[in-house]
Structure formats: structure tokens, C-alpha cells
Amino acid sequence: MRVTLSVIKADVGSIGGHTRPSERMLHAVREMLQSACSAKGLLIDGLVTFTGDDIALIMSHTHGVGAPAVHRFAWECFLAATEVARQQGLYGAGQDLLVDAPSGNIRGAGPAVAEIEFERDPQSQDRPAEAFLIFAADKCSPGAYNYPLYAAFCDPMHNGGLLLNPKMHRGFTFTIIDMDAKDRDRIIRLDVPERIWDVATLLQNPDRFAVEAIHSRYKPDEQIVAVSATRLHNIAGRYTGKDDPVAIVRTQGIFPAPEEIVEPFLLGHFVAGDARGSHVMPIMPVPINTPVTGPFCLPIVSCLAFSMDAEGRFAEECVDMFGGPVWDQTRLKVQAKADEWRRQGFIGPTMASHTELAYTGIVETLQALEREFITRE
Ligand code: 13P
Ligand code: MG
Ligand code: MG
Questions:
Q1: I want to staple 254 with a disulfide (CB 3.0 to 4.6 A). Which of 74, 167, 193, 333 is the partner?
Q2: How many domains does the chain have?
């Protein structure tokens, strides 16, 4: 059967600042999801999680990518959670719902959307089992996945599987999106390893270019990765919160293994985001359902591993990939790295680039100061 995985995430309110959604908000969404998964419902299966202040809906169904009914359902879930957030007086109620009533597909309306459709066939030679990872990141932009995806799919120093598995050795096709393009999507497709340095040249600038998809070259119909690569500030025209991207990565068999995909997160790489979306800070892998509570509003990322049965069900049990003690050392290292880096305060590279800051209030001060400048003869 053809199954679609849809991961749709939004920040529609949080307790005491940009920390986490409330239990009542989550309860409202879980109730809606449960009835959507009941007999003859819209969905096959689903799970509701949070990462920082963002609620993620992880859903399987048979309606395909961009299905209006599924997107409308997600939007209604976020509206219901917004209503609870309003009643509770929470911060940023409805923050990511940038349009009034989207017609159908909600990509570009605020929430982060990542989807993949594939054939779920237990008799299939290449994928008798379906395993996948769901990443959800808070306080950062979609370019946050550039480094880990490049490392895992292009660099055998990070992923020895590229040498060991002949089906992966055939390489991959990267779809990279230009997130600055406003009216229509602008994308480029590049095959690796042949075009590896061209991929690197684009991914170097994660403010503008992000990996949107990766396909197998051994089985070109098989999409391995989907990332929600849209920028809220391009949609809203001003700073409204960070994009806080989600990603689906299918794993095992002809694709990289989960351990190969999560390895690059050991680095705690620097990403744009953090407080007011206006800094450059290292990203910390955290357990699922972790609130943001520390200094700075450090970027965080969660990762769940799933298996899917022949009917598209997956949510009975999953594994929290960043939950275990192996990541404790990374977490401490990332916090130490952040503390050291931010001793520099606001000067230069600790804050985001001026292209990013152009969507913040710093612009007004700079414009006012412009008038006070004098040209010396
Ligand atoms: P969110 O995008 O997660 O709402 O964070 C916004 C922010 O400015 C945090 O300081
Ligand atoms: Mg928020
Ligand atoms: Mg958020």
C-alpha cells in the first residue's frame, strides 16, 4: 500500500515564555488525533509530541503528500490548542498560524511541514521493514540540518556505511531549496558524490539554502529525507519566531542506519536561532518533550525512531534516540561551548548575520542612527 508520513509542527503558545506547550493544549490535540485515527478516520496512526514550545503531529495516512484534508486537520488541531493557550493566558497563542484560513495545503502558512510518500510492502526485496527517524528542532532555522545531512550522506568519515553498503555507495540525489525565493519555489537537484563540492558550496549558507529532500540513486523513486525548509520571516515579512524545522529520515536496509544519521549531532554544531532568533549558537540533542529553560534559549533537537507495520501503524512504541545517557556528555559539552561563546555578548559572529537581523527591531535603531551620521571632508 502507498503510505504517507506527515510531520507538521507549530508553536501556538507556551507557558511563561518560549518554553513548552501546556498539558491542556497537548491533551486537546491528542483527543483530536485519537478520533482521527479511529475506524474509517482520516489517519492510520499518529503521535503528538513537543520539543521546546512546538507541538509536533506525527501522522501516517493514505492521502498523499500535501493532502488538503490532512493539512486542514493539522491546522484545526493547532487552532484548538491556540484556543486553550488563550484561555490559559499563555505566551504567543497562535504564534505560528500566519494566515487566517489556509485553503488546503498549509506549507508556507506558518507550521513546519515534512512529508514522504512510499510503498509499504512487507514482501518488498529492498524494504521489507520500514524504519524511520523524526527530528524536531526548536529555536533554529531549517539550515540547522545542513551540517548533519551533509555529514551523514556525503562524508564516509562520519558514515562508514557509504563504503560498506553497495546500495548506498551508488550515491544520493540532494534537492536543495533557495529559501530566499519568495513567490515560487526555487530548487536545484545535485547528485552525490559527483557534485559533492557544489552541494557543500550551497549548504555553506544555511540562512539561504537548505536540504529539502534526499533520494536514493539505487532506487530513484525512494525518498529518504524530507525537511520542512521554509522561512517564517519570508512568509510574514518580519520576525515572528524561528522556523523550528522538522525532518523525516527513513533508515536501514538501502538507507543509512539510525546510528549513522545521529552521529553528526555529537558535534553540537553552530546554527542561527537562539534568543529572539538572532544569535548563532550550538544545537543540543535533547530527549523528546523537553522544555526550553536554560540561559540564552539554546537551540535544541529531538529525535524519535519508529517502525511501521504492514498497515501503516507505528505509534504504539517508539525509541527516544537522544534520550539515553550516551548523549549526556554531548549535552554538557554543548552547554559549555555555548557559555564560552556567549561571553562575547553581542559583538560580531555571536549574533546572527545582518541579513537575518534585518527582520528584527535593530533595523529601526540603525535607521535612526543613519540620520546622525556625518561625512567628514
Ligand atoms: P520560538 O520560535 O521557539 O517561538 O522562539 C522565539 C524566540 O524568540 C525565543 O527567544
Ligand atoms: Mg515560541
Ligand atoms: Mg519554537
A1: 167
A2: 1
Cβ < 5 A residues, ion ligand 3: 11, 53-54, 138, 244
Q: Which three cell numbers stand for residue 342?
A: 556567549
How much distance in Å is there from the Cα of 331 to the middle of ligand 2? Answer: 22
CA dihedral 346, 350, 288, 46 (to 10 degrees): 100
- Domain holding 253, by residue range, is 2-367
Ligand 1, closest atom to CA 53?
A: 3
3-state secondary structure 55-90: EEEEEEECCCCCCHHHHHHHHHHHHHHHHHHHHCCC
Residues ≥6 apart with Cβ < 8 Å to 64: 2, 4, 117
Type of residue numbered 48: V
Query: Ramachandran region of residue 251, left (φ > 0), alpha (ψ -120 to 50) or beta?
Result: beta
Strands 209-216 and 187-192: unpaired
Domain contains 79: yes
The set of residues, in sequence order, having a beta carbon less than 8 Å from that of 29 and lying 6+ positions away, is 48, 55, 57, 77, 78, 80, 81
Per-residue pLDDT of the chain (377 residues; tens, 9 = 90+): 999 999 999 999 999 999 999 999 999 999 999 999 998 899 999 999 999 999 999 999 999 999 999 999 999 999 999 999 999 999 999 999 988 878 788 888 999 999 999 999 999 999 999 999 999 999 999 999 999 999 999 999 999 999 999 999 999 999 999 998 887 889 999 999 999 999 999 999 999 999 999 999 999 999 999 999 987 777 666 666 668 999 999 999 999 999 999 999 999 999 999 999 999 999 999 999 999 999 999 999 999 999 999 999 999 999 999 999 999 999 999 999 999 999 999 999 999 998 889 888 999 999 999 999 999 99
Is residue 92 a part of any domain in this protein? yes
**What interhelical angle do 23-36 and 68-87 show, nearest 10?**
150
Is 377 part of any domain? no
Write phi, then psi, for 57 (nearest 5 degrees). -105, 120
Ligand 1 neighbourhood includes 241 CB (under 6 angstroms): yes
